[in-house]
Write a structure and sequence with these properties.
The protein contains ten helices and 14 strands. It is an alpha+beta fold and 294 residues long.
């Protein structure tokens, strides 16, 4: 499929420090293993140590203006564009392929003009999210996975205060919402912004499609999605509830072979927790699903 951008490949191939150098950002000082800091090139403030780069995790954060994220987020701010356009520019600059030899995965279908996502990209990001909260370890989520998915405990003000927050991206990698999970029994357990159309997106779809895998695993829970991903199967998406809506189904073209389905079903069983079951979804011959038991 012409124009398909592999977000994961770009983030893995283009180091943050190299990109910063190309944009003329210098003067960063080593402050520890894999750690660099200096003046922020985004808001150009006076603070000498507000801008931090972690080269092991390939993430940046400014403690003054609040900007942070991956190399794609950095370029999006520097170039005043969205994440997908930033990926295109980096792909061209880094001599990376803009598409797989066979295009996007066969199970992924780009939206038509009439199906374009009506959700508007968020104009902000939550900052001060604690990816080291003990609850993540209890649920089997490694620190590296929490950092990659930008999840953690948010103690700041607002709708999702004192909840575990999950950023939600649309199919082209634009941040469109956050979901907050209660940790103290407060209802509702899961909270979305008012008016958020859960039927329009699938959690982690942009990463799954960028993986280039021939099949996709669909799970009901966000935590199941994280565990499958960190187990090495990156082509995994999660529902926004307990139902697979029509628009979500249209993003998934079920074309994989019986042999492929059998292999991925077995793989899914090996990943599933003891409280999960694995089944093929009726009517979806290319789909493997993990269905949480409780």
């Amino acid at each position: 499929m012409a124009g398909w951008i592999e977000f994961a490949m770009i983030k893995q191939t283009l180091p943050l420090m190299r990109v910063l150098e190309q944009y003329g950002v210098g003067g960063l000082r080593r402050s520890g293993k894999d750690q660099w800091r200096g003046r922020c090139p985004l808001h150009k403030g006076e603070g000498r140590d507000t801008f931090h780069v972690n080269t092991a995790r390939q993430l940046f954060h400014c403690f003054s203006c609040g900007a942070g994220g991956s190399v794609l987020d950095l370029v999006a701010v520097l170039e005043q564009c969205d994440v997908r356009e930033a990926a295109r520019r980096l792909a061209a600059w880094g001599s990376l392929p803009a598409a797989n030899a066979s295009g996007a995965p066969v199970w992924f279908k780009q939206p038509t003009v009439t199906e374009k996502n009506k959700l508007r990209p968020l104009r902000f990001r939550l900052h001060g999210v604690d990816g080291g909260h003990p609850y993540l370890a209890i649920r089997g989520i490694a620190p590296r996975t929490a950092a990659e998915f930008e999840i953690g405990f948010y103690g700041g003000p607002g709708l999702l205060s004192r909840r575990l927050v999950f950023p939600i991206y649309d199919e082209v990698g634009q941040l469109v919402a956050y979901r907050g999970r209660s940790l103290d029994g407060t209802e509702p357990r899961y909270k979305f912004p008012a008016g958020f159309a859960k039927s329009q997106v699938l959690f982690n779809l942009h990463r799954a499609a960028a993986s280039g895998e021939p099949s996709v695993v669909v799970v009901e829970g966000f935590f199941d999605c994280l565990r499958v991903h960190q187990a090495g199967f990156h082509s995994v998406v999660a529902l926004m509830g307990s139902a697979l809506y029509d628009r979500q189904q249209r993003r998934l073209c079920f074309r994989s072979s019986a042999k492929s389905r059998k292999r991925h079903l077995a793989h899914g069983r090996s990943i599933a927790s003891e409280n999960s079951s694995v089944c093929l979804v009726s009517g979806g011959p290319g789909l493997v699903a993990l269905d949480p038991g409780t």
